[in-house]
Design brief:
Helices cover 28% and strands 24% of the residues. It is an alpha/beta fold and 548 residues long. Among the domains are: 12-17 and 34-199, ANL, N-terminal domain (Rossmann fold), CATH 3.40.50.12780; 365-430, Roll (Luciferase, domain 3); 435-547, GMP Synthetase, Chain A, domain 3, CATH 3.30.300. It is globular and about 70 Å long.
């Protein structure tokens, strides 16, 4: 016997309609370069979304048409988040920090027909346009056209949508229809397109809002620092309106000083971003002796969160840090550490250590770990294997790609992890980043976290370099905090108190900067290339080197 419930499709347009009905006067604030902050309500936003939907329809955009964006976190980009999928088209958010050749490859692979872009990216768009034959319309997200351009069929966003009606009848269609497209980072080979559906996006937003996830409510002012071109800004452009949150969009200025000013002036209560961004914010606050007056929690993801950062935010700034884990292929939320330590009287260090795990799977997501032979490993907190995941917002394949990422219905993540008896998951490394020394694994993540526990270390990255006896040995790149004179001998001695002696790096190199990708992750493939070019992959050069 089946239940007798209405079968209504889960569509992104329904989120917008709900926000207008229930939270129409709630404010959206957007930073637009050096101009005054732009402000409007969800009700006013919806009217502009309707104009954009009409404009897209009139331009021939229909179900399945791919519409690309090259834009920061601002109100016009937010409008595209609703108008494009709302009419049944597919929103392809592109990373403007990519190499032009790689970006052009993605646009061609997706067969995008329209490109919306911020004015700052005009030179980039002009460079790739001759190599993107599918693009037939360009729209600059501004009030007017640039004085000079080589682009044909270029429109000004405001002039374009201003010609259309601000009412629109949102169509209904299959909730499994594609809504969004993001490409993986492509660190090895060409990136792969992950195609989200309306169903997956709405379910992800509902679970994201849960108290054991982000805990969003209409009392929150939300600042998504994570870029809107990166996995849909972790779903916040959908989850915030769904919950009636006041939404603050930071634009391109993501330095510590700019973020702190925005957090304070707009009374932000919740934010989300990668650890490198919050490191910049923490350094600014420490330098100026200030702390946030309204922000009470933040979610960090994208890379491992150092224990020292969690303690700093908790003790010095009274901000709860929740670490989340996910991937482009997981929409991205898979797990989150939102529970306190089991012992309410546990010390700060114990709580911080628990918080550095990636936490428990959210509702709808299942986890497993598998050994090299594919057999399932026990959830005992000790056994390490490749993390497998499945759920209604987990990718089952890739656009235009023959890769089959599923193993017996589970997505193979490429992460090495442990899961304990209570379901708490801890990422110990990436399969490609784990250092295999003498037949044993050294976790590059744990080694980096140990180094960053030193008060004079701002950031650290560990790679493996070849060794004739041990196969590989760890080599550590370190970015010191401003004013530090920390040397390799001192840091090595510090590490011996926190990790096994055989884990201590063969070499420690202090650098002025580390190569960061668009999402704030250290690009270890560049470090490996650098080590090879400078001879650190040679055993004699790697042995006991300590540059300062």
């Amino acid at each position: 016997m089946q239940g007798m419930m209405m079968d209504r499709p889960l569509l992104i347009s329904a989120i917008l309609q709900h926000a207008v009905r229930s939270y129409g006067e709630v404010e959206v604030v957007s930073r637009d370069g050096d101009r005054p902050l732009f402000r409007y309500t969800y009700g006013a936003m919806a009217r502009r979304v309707n104009r954009l939907a009409n404009a897209l329809r009139d331009a021939g955009v229909s179900a399945g048409t791919r519409v690309a964006t090259l834009a920061w976190n601002d109100y016009r980009h937010l409008e595209a988040y609703y108008a494009v999928p709302g009419i049944g088209a597919v929103l392809h958010t592109c990373n403007p920090r990519l190499h032009p050749a790689q970006l052009a490859w993605m646009l061609n692979d997706a067969e995008d027909s329209v490109l919306l872009f911020d004015p700052a990216f005009l030179p980039l768009v002009e460079a790739i346009a001759p190599h993107c034959p599918h693009l037939r319309k360009y729209v600059v997200l501004d009030t007017a056209l640039p004085e000079r351009t080589t682009l044909a069929n270029l429109l000004s966003y405001e002039q374009w949508i201003g010609e259309y009606n601000e009412t629109f009848a949102w169509p209904e269609f299959d909730e499994r229809q594609a809504s969004g497209l993001c490409y993986t980072s492509g660190t090895t080979g060409n990136p792969k397109g992950v195609l989200y559906s309306h169903r997956s996006a709405v379910l992800h937003s509902l679970v994201l809002s849960n108290a054991q996830a982000l805990g969003l409510s209409s009392a929150d002012t939300v600042l998504p620092v994570v870029p809107m071109f990166h996995v849909n800004a972790w779903g916040l452009p959908y989850a915030a309106p769904l919950n009636g949150c006041r939404l603050v969009l930071p634009g391109a200025r993501l330095d510590g000083a700019s973020l702190f000013d925005l957090i304070e002036s707009e009374k932000v209560t919740f934010s989300a971003g990668v650890p490198t961004v919050w490191l910049s914010l923490a350094q600014h606050m420490e330098k100026h002796g200030v702390s946030p007056t309204t922000m009470r929690r933040t979610v960090l993801g994208g890379s491992a969160v150092p224990e020292t950062m969690i303690r700093t935010f908790a003790e010095a700034f009274d901000v709860e840090v929740r670490q989340a884990w996910g991937m482009t292929e997981t929409s991205p939320l898979g797990t989150i550490m939102a529970r306190p330590a089991h012992d309410a009287n546990a010390c700060v260090e114990s709580n911080a250590h628990v918080a550095t795990s990636q936490g428990h799977a959210v509702f709808g997501v299942e986890l497993a770990i598998a050994g090299p032979d594919g057999k399932r490993l026990p959830h005992d907190g000790q056994s390490q294997g490749e993390l497998l995941i499945r759920g209604p917002w987990i990718a089952s394949g890739y656009l235009n790609h023959e890769a089959k990422p599923l193993i017996d219905g589970w997505f193979a993540t490429g992460d090495v992890a442990t899961i304990d008896a209570s379901g708490n998951m801890r990422i110990t490394d990436r399969i490609k980043d784990v250092i295999k020394s003498g037949g044993e694994w050294i976790s590059s993540i744990d080694l980096e976290s140990a180094a960053m526990a030193h008060p004079e270390v701002a950031l650290a990255a560990a790679i493996g370099v070849p060794h004739p006896k041990w196969a590989e040995r760890p080599y550590l790149y370190v970015l010191r905090r401003p004013g530090s004179s920390l040397d390799a001998t001192t840091l090595s001695a510090f590490l011996t108190t926190r990790i096994a002696k055989w884990w201590v790096p063969e070499g420690i190199e202090f650098v002025d900067e580390l190569p960061l990708g668009a999402t704030g992750k250290v690009q270890k493939q560049i470090l490996r290339q650098r080590a090879h070019a400078t001879g650190e992959t040679d055993a004699d050069a790697a042995h006991a080197v300590a540059r300062s």
